[in-house]
Design brief:
Blueprint lengths: L1 H61 L4 H4 L10 E3 L2 E8 L13 E9 L2 E11 L22 E3 L2 E5 L9 E5 L7 E5 L11 E9 L4 E11 L2 E6 L3 E3 L5 E7 L7 E10 L6 E10 L6 E3 L5 E3 L3
Antiparallel strand pairs: 1-2, 2-3, 3-4, 4-16, 4-17, 5-8, 6-7, 7-15, 8-14, 9-13, 9-15, 10-11, 10-12, 10-14
Length: about 300
């Protein structure tokens, strides 16, 4: 009888252990399934957030005229941006590695959207929507009409037909007696309201020496005189270099003097100029999605 009771006790104990193990296993499986369900939901939501993040970023870029200046090629944004119940960071890449060298370059936008435990990377190619070229405010910026529209300042001006950047002629500033010796053009009646930002783009060639070159707009009005200047741009000797910068003159109308001129950071070497353009800065052309370029990226 005792042996039977002992066997029954062991059987009950074994069954109880099996029931407990089944309960623990079932609870563990439920937790795994619940975690899998949450992860699946996070992944689905992150994928949707990535699409929304692309749209939000395109709108932000199109509302920021200086976005090419304020972003670095292939560098993630430093602060996550909250969107719905997640967040995202983004980066911009240019095929030639320089976002700011050409406003007409395509750019690839990549976003990393995170929701809960899931992150999804999505990218798309953006293309500037080109329109009419902005109006050049300068007279004879390509020097195809000789020196018309230009005056000399501490130099002598002559037309040069050897190796111009565009067209058949460029302008030579020779016999410079100052680092401010350059061609100048009168901008009275040309400049718009005070505080307007202009883009100055030109090609310059310095004979025989490496120099820094900048463009200047000098204004004189009832508020006094003011000089708006671009940064010094390094120009290697005997090489055509494109300079593409912005200027924001400050003055109180009416203007009595307004001139565009060019300086070097030292030396009086001969200089050549070609394709000089001054336009009102309106920012780059708006960006649009290039169809067929959506791409899901792989997490590093």
């Amino acid at each position: 009888m005792t042996a039977r009771r002992g066997s029954a006790y062991l059987l009950v104990l074994a069954v109880s252990m099996v029931i407990v193990m089944l309960g623990v296993t079932s609870s563990h499986l439920m937790r795994i399934r619940s975690a899998d369900a949450r992860l699946s939901e996070d992944e689905a939501r992150a994928a949707l957030l990535a699409r929304s993040a692309i749209e939000v970023t395109i709108r932000a870029l199109n509302n920021d005229p200086s976005w090419r200046d304020s972003h670095n090629h292939d560098q993630w944004s430093s602060t996550p941006i909250t969107i719905h119940d997640g967040s995202f960071i983004y980066k911009l890449t240019d095929e030639d590695g320089d976002l700011n060298d050409d406003a007409s370059d395509d750019v690839r936008l990549t976003v990393a959207a995170t929701r809960g435990q899931a992150t999804r990377l999505l990218s798309v190619l953006l293309r500037p929507v080109t329109g009419p070229a902005p109006t050049n405010l300068l007279t004879n910026g390509g020097f195809e009409s000789g020196t018309s529209g230009w005056n000399r300042f501490f130099c002598t001006l002559a037309i040069n037909t050897t190796n111009p950047v565009e067209g058949t002629q460029c302008l030579l500033a020779t016999s410079r007696t100052s680092n401010a010796g350059s061609p100048i053009q009168d901008l009275v009646g040309v400049l718009a309201d005070p505080g307007t930002t202009y883009r100055i783009r030109f090609f310059v060639f310095v004979r025989g020496a490496d120099r820094g070159v900048r463009a200047n707009i000098l204004t004189t009005s009832s508020g006094g005189s003011s000089l708006a200047a671009t940064p010094w741009i390094p120009v290697p000797a005997d090489t055509w270099t494109e300079i593409n910068e912005t200027l924001t003159p400050s003055f109180s109308p009416p203007l009595t003097i307004a001139t565009l001129s060019f300086y070097t950071d030292g030396g009086y070497e001969d200089m050549l100029f070609d394709d000089v353009r001054l336009t009102i800065e309106t920012g780059g052309p708006p960006l649009s999605v290039v169809e067929g370029t959506w791409r899901r990226e792989i997490l590093p």
